[in-house]
Amino acid sequence: MSDLEELQKKVRKLQSRAGNAKMELHDLAEDLPVNWTEIKALAEQTFGVFAELEAAKRELGALENSR
Question: From what superkingdom does this record's organism come (predicted)?
């Protein structure tokens, strides 16, 4: 598998993880004030996944533009 294909696969997996994290955060928000103590940890986790996704997208864009 080429570097481009591997990076595309990574981005797809991260997009899925980001979507799941977003929904978990949304579900937590809907149930407030229940489990309010989980907000910070879940928000940090969600932030991390989206940061990783953004970095992978930039890397993919750079790789695609270099071809």
Answer: Bacteria
